[in-house]
Amino acid sequence: MSWHVLGAGSLGLLWAGRLAASGLPTSLLLRNQASLDSFLQAGTIAITRQQQSTAVALSAQTAATDEPIRRLILACKAYDAETAIASIAQRLVDGADVLLLQNGLGSQAAVAAQIPQARCILLSSTEGAFRDGSFSVNFAGAGQNWLGDPHNPAPPDWLNELQQAGIPHQWTTSIDQRLWRKLAVNCAINPLCVLHACRNGGLLEHLQEVHGLCLELVTLLEQCAGSSSAAGLFAEVEQIIRATASNQCSMLQDVQRGQRTEIRYLLGHACTQAHQRGLPVPQLDALQQRLRAQLLVLGLPDD
Ligand code: NAP
């Protein structure tokens, strides 16, 4: 059974490359014919890990191909997910599995609503990769991938293929809670790093502000994901800030590259969910307003 991977970006290349390198039939779904033509010229993708580069051969096609899809990995940004899934929705067979790699929350439900014939499996990842050329990815950070289906606790039968491909993974029956916790940590760190234009460690000078945000996030987590997801949030955030003091968070990296952020699916989702529940979150609201204003000043979309 073939894997289709939509999106030849950082994670798409990393996942497709590992699956194909282990001998599993894998096909990249590219945006258009021009992108397919440039892939065909290269014929392989490159994965670099610890300065060692490996070329991996695999097939590629555009969304317009009519080959049925049984297993899809959706590897685009959250703001592209709805459009991307629409481009191949009719190719997904009944009972297809779709693995959603998007960070944050909100895009997964929007995607699932478009493909009722498929089972959507959500992912939370601590792996890190960045594109260092077209069809070339640098696998910079080892980590873990948690996969789960909020509607069905049974694991899919293909986890052994991830094992075969050397993709670290763990099936979880609480993927929503994991994604909410990760979202909350992101809300406490990333927007402030953009606003203060600082690395994570720079927030040590703003711990009171971080603490105030965590108090609101804890109340939100308790309502949206249960009290166990909320426990010890500020302590974890402070520990992450110290442990990753010299890192630039993903949102700051996006801003510095002049790229759109995923704010809508992170801080934006937190604020929307709080408002829908009638939960006052004045500090999160103010943070969102400041961040959106800053994004507009920088000429970037504010959602
Ligand atoms: P990325 O490098 O920007 O890759 C996204 C890819 O999707 C791009 O190649 C983009 O093509 C492609 N794409 C978008 N719409 C498409 C469409 N309709 N058809 C075909 N291709 C399409 O993003 P990423 O870093 O892999 O991130 C993907 C998700 O994983 C994000 O939600 C991110 O937050 C999350 N994540 C990433 C990492 C990481 O280390 N990179 C770690 C954890 C989580 P164009 O370039 O042509 O737009």
Automatic annotation (TrEMBL):
Associated pathway: Cofactor biosynthesis; (R)-pantothenate biosynthesis; (R)-pantoate from 3-methyl-2-oxobutanoate: step 2/2
One biological process term in Gene Ontology: pantothenate biosynthetic process
Broad enzyme group: oxidoreductase
Keyword Cell membrane: no
Ketopantoate reductase N-terminal domain residues: 3-150
Top-rank lineage group of the source organism: Bacteria
GO molecular function: 2-dehydropantoate 2-reductase activity; NADP binding
A GO term from the CC aspect: cytoplasm
Matching Pfam families: ApbA, ApbA_C
Keywords for the protein's UniProt record, in alphabetical order: NADP, Oxidoreductase, Pantothenate biosynthesis
Catalytic activity annotation: (R)-pantoate + NADP(+) = 2-dehydropantoate + NADPH + H(+)
Domain Ketopantoate reductase C-terminal: 175-293
The protein's Enzyme Commission number: 1.1.1.169
Family under the similarity heading: Belongs to the ketopantoate reductase family.
Function: Catalyzes the NADPH-dependent reduction of ketopantoate into pantoic acid.
Protein name: 2-dehydropantoate 2-reductase
Naturally occurring in which organism (per UniProt): Pseudomonas pohangensis
